[in-house]
Amino acid sequence: MIHRSLILASRSPRRVELLAQLGVQCEIVPADIDESSLPGEDPADYVQRLAVAKAAAVVAQHGARGLPILAADTTVALEHAILGKPTDAQDALSMLTRLSGTAHWVHTAVALAADGEIRCLLSSTKVVMMDVPTAVLQAYVASGEPMDKAGAYGIQGRAGAWIQYIEGSYSGVMGLPLYETAQLLHAW
User: Fold this and answer.
1) Is 92:152 a contact under the CB 8 Å cutoff?
2) Residue 45 annotated to the active site
């Protein structure tokens, strides 16, 4: 579809795999920014702010190389609470317990820095998770799988069996919405 190279401001192997689906090769240059949310910040605004900040940080370090820079950020939102990556196993279990049996939102913003500007698009997906027994959640946390994922679960992994349905972008829930990414790359 798209045959370009870019710098990916992320360590996520899932994002690399998703870019490959678009025919995009990438060099990984993670952004080092403060990912703290602001008091009262809306989850959708939060991910957009971070995606732009990640792109800008990598531009500041590597912008002279001439490659576009793609950055993304994903969070899970339960009502207005931002559920990022868990800090430890107890935090992961707490998040999963809160999400079990709920409808929640996964917001992923993708930003492209190219030609002296940064453009950003947002993907928001409603996710409905079944009521998951505590013992199953504990075993999932013990597997280590939820530790590097927003909301402490990955739809593409074992937790995918708990998802009753989604309304929106599956790839957005994985961490890089392909439609929005392709739109940014085509516009560039």
Assistant:
1) yes
2) no
78-90: pLDDT as tens digits: 998 999 999 999 9
Contacts of 88 (CB under 8 A, 6+ apart): none
Residue whose token pair is 């504990």: 138
Residue type, 92: A
The pTM score is 0.93
Q: pLDDT tens, 137-182?
A: 999 999 999 998 999 999 999 999 999 999 999 999 999 999 999 9
Here the tokens at position 119 are 């453009």
Distance CA 134, CA 88 (A): 17
Residues in contact with 164: Cβ distance below 8 Å, sequence separation at least 6, in sequence order = 128, 129, 130
- All structural domains of the chain: 5-187 (3.90.950.10)
Enter the tokens of residue 130: 């079944």
Nearest Cα to Cα of residue 52 among 85, 9, 5, 4: 9
In the set 42, 73, 91, 115, the catalytic residue is: 73
Closest CA to 26 of 46, 47, 10, 50: 10
| Token pair 């559920």 in the structure block, residue | 83
| Alpha helix segments (H runs only) across the chain | 13-21, 43-62, 89-99, 134-143, 170-174, 178-187
Rg for the chain (alpha carbons), in Å? 16
